[in-house]
Design brief:
It contains 13 helices and no strands. The protein is globular and about 60 Å long. It has a single domain (6-187, 198-399), classed as Up-down Bundle (Growth Hormone, Chain: A). 82% of the residues lie in helices and 0% in strands. Helix 2 (31-37) packs across helix 3, helix 3 (42-70) runs antiparallel to helix 12 (336-359) and helix 10 (245-299) crosses helix 11.
Amino acid sequence: MWSYSPIKTAIILGPLIFCSALALDVYMPVLPEMKNLFHTSQGAIQLSVSIFFLICGLGQLILGPVSDQIGRIKVVWTSIMLCLLGAIGCAVSESIGIFLTFRTIEALGAAGLSMSAFAIVRDVFDGENSAKIYGIINGMLALSPILGPIIGVALITRYPWYSTFYFLACLSILTGLVFKVWGKESLDKANRTGFSWSIFSRYMIIIKSIHFWSFTLPAVAGMSSFFALFSITPYIIESLGLPKVTIVYSFGTVGLSFMLGSFLMGKIVQNIGLFKTTILGVLLIFVSGVALIIFYQLWGLNLYVFFGPCTVATFGCALAVGAGAGGALEPFGQYPGVASAMFGCMQLGGSSVIGTISGLFAVNTSYPLAITMIFTSLIALIVIFLKINSEKILYQTQLL
């Protein structure tokens, strides 16, 4: 059984997170060129990003209950094989249709790895301890938008575009080796649930929880803003006529901000608690969205005016996503796999839908990203207000 310390747990789970995250970030630099490679439209290429996020989200709805029944380790191994198959399939694809098919397979594997990592943490830790580990994991996750473009640019400047997917295939093999040596089951057989269609009714219990939504929607706001930023950035750089290496610097700056927020989140949570940390993250996203619009109106589009507010926003994204995960999953210790799956589906699936919609508009202005930040953070703040109000009513009722 899993008996590692929080730090060792985060390190062992790191490859699972990297294998999932780098599958998106490594090939981002080649996105603008892929429409010519496959003789298709920008929308079709953008769909490959949206499908990845959407399947990552929806796949967890199935894999979460399955992992509660058969354990985490089997889901991890199956997911690694799907990632390996998907990456190799993408590398040898000769049409956009075949490419999207294998991206879907790869995304399903990524969904299993991401869900398993969060469920393992929830199996072994809870409350503020789990939030600290999520912060460490998110800090590792923040390395992906820094390392991913660097690796991607390095590969495509020396080798064909499909080298990025052979790299991802190698990463899947490495992840398997790490888990072969150090991976252990975290869900005791006594705590597993037998198969029953009623398992899926547990989603209704979670859906009805205002507590769940008050933490999950801030995480959706954080991930949606993050997703929209990284989807739009290659096109912003292209429209400004800047070299591809600028993508590395840009992703690196906002990635470092996300990493800083992830590592500082533990101390912030200790000082003000999970809920207030989540609110702080949402407010930073909202303010950054407003600043993007004001700056664009004053100075138009340039690198510094665009990425200045984005750097602040990604710090807020780290707080909203990390604290949101810790708070959303805390009350559901009896079925952490289902709760992790629901959280992951809302976070990634919701981000996919919102990010896809924002990508339908002109990607050479600040408006799509700014509106995404403002809209998602406002929805999150409304639900937070409803939670606070319901708690006040409950407290007043108990006094009577």
